[in-house]
Write a structure and sequence with these properties.
mainly beta, four-stranded antiparallel β-sheet, two-stranded antiparallel ribbon
C-alpha cells in the first residue's frame, strides 16, 4: 500500500494516478471519503520508481516520483 496525507481535509474527491517511467498509466485510484489519509493498493505494481499525479477536487495539486518497495 502507498499512503499519502491530504493537504485539504475538506476535499470531496482525491485522485492519484501512477505512471511507469515510459509515461504509461498503470494505476488510477479515486477516493470520495473525507479521510485525511489516502491508501492506494500497489501490490499489482513491480518494485521500482514511478511518477504520480495527485488531484484534489479535479485540480492538479502535485506531481512527483514515488518508490514502490514491497516488504
Amino acid at each position: 500500500w502507498a499512503s499519502l496525507l491530504r493537504t485539504l481535509t475538506n476535499a470531496t474527491m482525491t485522485k492519484l494516478e501512477i505512471y511507469d517511467l515510459s509515461g504509461k498509466l498503470v494505476l488510477s485510484n479515486v477516493m470520495h471519503e473525507s479521510s485525511d489519509q489516502v491508501k492506494i493498493p500497489t501490490f499489482s505494481l513491480d518494485e521500482g520508481i514511478y511518477l504520480y499525479k495527485w488531484y484534489i477536487d479535479n485540480a492538479h495539486v502535485k506531481s512527483g516520483k514515488i518508490s514502490i518497495i514491497h516488504r
